[in-house]
Hints:
The chain is mainly α and 136 residues long. Helices cover 71% and strands 0% of the residues.
Amino acid sequence: MDEHELTVAAQIWNRALLEDVSSLREGDRALAGMALADSLIMHDGVLNAVEIYSESAGEMTAAVAGFLYFGLPQIVSLLAEAMEIFLNGDEEELDKHAVALDERYWALAAEGNTPYARFEAVLLANPSAFAPLSDQ
Length: 136
């Protein structure tokens, strides 16, 4: 494989982030919810992600379903806790919790248990849960 070619897993992950996968298979839909949430968290933090999701129950539901599908219920618990902090806290309270929530996310999503690693494991175990890639 050329060093610039993406693996099949990377192509499926990117498709979940960049395309509408709502009509694709169960794994694709779960991946889209989890991958978007993971991206938001990694770039802007847990509290920022739940703030965005507080305005879109459907996206939060998709994120939760995705993390559960890929065997990461501890992250779902962290998101629920963060949402409660967000909804009940003032700005000072939020600032106090932001770093700790982010550190807990990174610990839960540590090497070998990252959302991407969990996705790769499911893809390997059950490739039919994901739609084939279209030839481009």
